[in-house]
Amino acid sequence: MKVRTLAVQGALEFTPDVFADGRGLFVSPFQGTAFTEATGVSLPVVQTNHSQSRRGVVRGVHFTATPPGCAKYVYCARGRALDIVVDIRIGSPTFGQWDTVLMDQVDFRTMYFPVGLGHAFVALEDDTVMSYMITSEYVPSNELAVSVVDPELDLPIPADVTPIFSERDRVAMTLTEAAERGVLPEYSQCLAIERGDGR
């Protein structure tokens, strides 16, 4: 398992070994020992999610109210997607910065989102399936969004993609609006939750 540090503080890309032969292939997108060695924490998964999207679907930038907070481990089980991590944690040294990981069926890259980070992706093929391991259960009132097309963020939506948004994402607030409303996670609290002493 190869690990790459991303531009957003705490976010990581993992690339597992792929074992291919005449029958097909075998890959382990998540490996607990490698994850703990890279992050210093375990991933207490309480829910898994699965989404299927046609080409052009853009989901995000989604985040969970903190507390309770939520960490995510994401990979593309089918198709191809541009996965985007955005630092929306007030007080973070990389606040407002983002990075991307191309997820596909060649390298099977994955991304880890610590508590408090924003997540978005762009489906680059029809029937793109994204799988998530998350550390808290889905509670609708805790789920928030910042606009993917916020010019302050200037996220890299590919020029050859016609974006398809949900109504929720279409009307999402800007990063500045979210900060003014006081709904963005606090960096220090996110770190405490990650360590297990901030809930």
UniProtKB/TrEMBL annotation:
Identify one Gene Ontology CC term for this UniProt entry.
Answer: cytosol
InterPro entries, from UniProt?
A: RmlC-like (IPR000888), RmlC-like_jellyroll (IPR014710), RmlC_Cupin_sf (IPR011051)
Question: Which residues are catalytic?
Answer: 62 (proton acceptor), 132 (proton donor)
For biological process, the GO terms are: dTDP-rhamnose biosynthetic process; polysaccharide biosynthetic process
| Coiled-coil intervals | none
Q: Which CDD domains does the entry mention?
A: cupin_RmlC (cd00438)
- PANTHER family given in the database record: DTDP-6-DEOXY-D-GLUCOSE-3,5 EPIMERASE, THYMIDINE DIPHOSPHO-4-KETO-RHAMNOSE 3,5-EPIMERASE
Q: What is this protein called?
A: Epimerase EvaD
Q: From what organism does this protein derive?
A: Haloactinopolyspora alba
